[in-house]
Amino acid sequence: MPASYVNVSPAWSADSVRLIATPSEFARSAYYFVQEVGHFHAAVPYFTEREGIDSYLVVYTVAGSGRLTYRDKSYSLASGQAFFIDCRTYQHYSAYGDGTWELLWVHLNGNQASRYYEAFCGYSPAPVVDAGGGSVIPGRIRELIGLHRARFAHTELLSSRLLTDVLTELVVIASGSGPSPGDVPAYVNQAVRTIDSRYGEKLTLDSLAAALAVSKFNLSRAFKRYIGLAPIAYLIEVRINHAKEYLKYSDAPIAEIAERVGIDNVSHFIDLFKNRTGLTPLAYRKQWSSR
Question: Which of 100, 127, 164, 247 is the 20 to 30 A CA-CA neighbour of 117?
Answer without folding.
Answer: 100
